[in-house]
Amino acid sequence: xxxxxxxxxxxxxxxxxxxxxxxxxxxxxxxxxxxxxxxxxxxxxxxxxxxxxxxxxxxxxxxxxxxxxxxxxxxxxxxxxxxxxxxxxxxxxxxxxxxxxxxxxxxxxxxxxxxxxxxxxxxxxxxxxxxxxxxxxxxxxxxxxxxxxxxxxxxxxxxxxxxxxxxxxxxxxxxxxxxxxxxxxxxxxxxxxxxxxxxxxxxxxxxxxxxxxxxxxxxxxxxxxxxxxxxxxxxxxxxxxxxxxxxxxxxxxxxxxxxxxxxxxxxxxxxxxxxxxxxxxxxxxxxxxxxxxxxxxxxxxxxxxxxxxxxxxxxxxxxxxxxxxxxxxxxxxxxxxxxxxxxxxxxxxxxxxxxxxxxxxxxxxxxxxxxxxxxxxxxxxxxxxxxxxxxxxxxxxxxxxxxxxxxxxxxxxxxxxxxxxxxxxxxxxxxxxxxxxxxxxxxxxxxxxxxxxxxxxxxxxxxxxxxxxxxxxxxxxxxxxxxxxxxxxxxxxxxxxxxxxxxxxxxxxxxxxxxxxxxxxxxxxxxxxxxxxxxxxxxxxxxxxxxxxxxxxxxxxxxxxxxxxxxxxxxxxxxxxxxxxxxxxxxxxxxxxxxxxxxxxxxxxxxxxxxxxxxxxxxxxxxxxxxxxxxxxxxxxxxxxxxxxxxxxxxxxxxxxxxxxxxxxxxxxxxxxxxxxxxxxxxxxxxxxxxxxxxxxxxxxxxxxx
Length: 706
Known about the structure:
Blueprint: E1 10-18, H1 25-41, E2 46-48, H2 66-82, E3 90-99, E4 102-111, E5 114-120, E6 145-149, E7 160-164, E8 167-170, E9 175-180, H3 182-185, H4 190-196, E10 201-206, H5 214-230, E11 233-238, E12 240-241, E13 249-250, E14 254-257, E15 260-264, E16 273-281, H6 282-290, H7 293-300, E17 307-310, H8 336-340, H9 343-355, E18 360-363, H10 368-394, E19 402-403, E20 406-407, H11 412-419, E21 420-426, H12 432-445, E22 448-453, H13 455-469, H14 480-508, E23 516-517, H15 523-528, H16 549-562, H17 567-572, H18 592-596, H19 600-610, H20 617-628, H21 634-651, H22 685-705
Parallel strand pairs: 1-2, 2-3, 8-17, 9-10, 10-11, 18-21, 18-23, 21-22
Antiparallel strand pairs: 1-16, 3-4, 4-5, 6-7, 8-9, 11-14, 12-13, 14-15, 19-20
């Protein structure tokens, strides 16, 4: 028949998104098996999972432990046994594998009870929060495989399996190649070489986390741009959710062919698993590649790539030629501000249900930062109840709809009131305006809210100090140490009270458990140390800790309009203040930007030049000359750079105790995972002298030119 002579080359391929969890071997395996079954049910011939999905991507130093390897092999054995239920399905999964004494990050391919290939990662990622070369080595023998002897202890029905940079080829001639996460981002991506060798399908199992705007580049420039340049079917599977760390994996698993997007799994949905598949016609790849003359010539000069054959057919002759092929879809892409409405709320939900706590506590000051945090919890409740309502309509269920064993309802106000507890902690220095902002917001989002006065607690602590030292500090003193101590004691009292309320609040509700305390220090404040060490910036989690003030203001504007929270308009237009100094005529006399000496917009520019711009004091000064010369004088730019670095140097120690924060921006100053720098600095004398000399030189040139 015509089908048997090669005219029919259609197959169905599936990508998966999983919310796996580091070291949750039982749960991870269940989710993997579930997606394999769903892929088979949809008629797929191949199921691709994310990178290191067996142990979970975020195991970190647990990858040093042999336990992690052994348990991964045990799970793989069970998956291999289960695969006999889906005899025509090629399964691609991810786990660590040790070969010749070295540990590799691998994709493992199996079919019908047999391992076909273990493919190690060629390029490891060590940027930003990634540390892959700490645990793994990259495979250096391109286009080469070796036979790896199987440990008989694991009980597989084979003595060996190919290990290395190989390409699989089915008995009906369909070739399957691989690249893993970072390889897509390298200058010479693996899929380019595979396409030039005529590979039909490229599988990318990935562990890519959310950063504002990153997903748009990944999809448009790399996935669609890559296969749009060289042709072929490109499968991309990514984790989605929180696997126990600061990052949120943002899914967007896709199927693309010849630069056309066929499938895109949603980026920020909360479900633990999602499978989507598409029928592709491999003849379209042949036609696409054959009409690009330069590619044909380049491919002809490449050496032949050895393929690893396996018994099994990828072409599905049960797919009728009359079956319409999928139309190209338009990518669903969010702006960075829209992503802030989705990513942190989803991360908060996954963290909450996995840590089995009873909700969140937010010290609500009436300012922009704590308002942003409380709003994110409200958007979390919106996201969850919306998902549950949709599932009810479709008659489906998912573990992500449950909290402490109870299925969540569809009333967003009810869920918010149950999970979000806020307190306005007033002092004699608090204004009427901030209290109104806090009360209005709490009412509109239906938080469980109350207000308290902290003055008696502050007075008690100062009384203890007086008994010991014989005096009480005063705001009237000319010694700045006294005024700072008075401000800091208020801030630290609020931290102590936050944890007291978080531990005991649910007793008054007749509910078990406690609350997670959420911090609300933004990245700009953390960068220059405009926080009190161990104040309300100290918390269990901080959803805005890597987000700058300018982005938070955009977020508040959007949330006010899109989600109907009008009180946010008054908050976002207010002047940021710590309200730790006495009022003057009942009005706030202290503002953040005046005390810092830099505006938040200026801090955002400086922060991004410092990192990821990788500029020190002098390079930053030169960069700001072209950015700010129309606005500021040379002396003003010099002053701002020096002021920033003086504040940064004396306050860097605060970053060593910063609250774990949602990672959303590359210029996060998180000392633990992202921004590794000293916390004891010299005075930058050489750098500052160089800046002063440059200013003098530029002034001299200006005088000469007049």
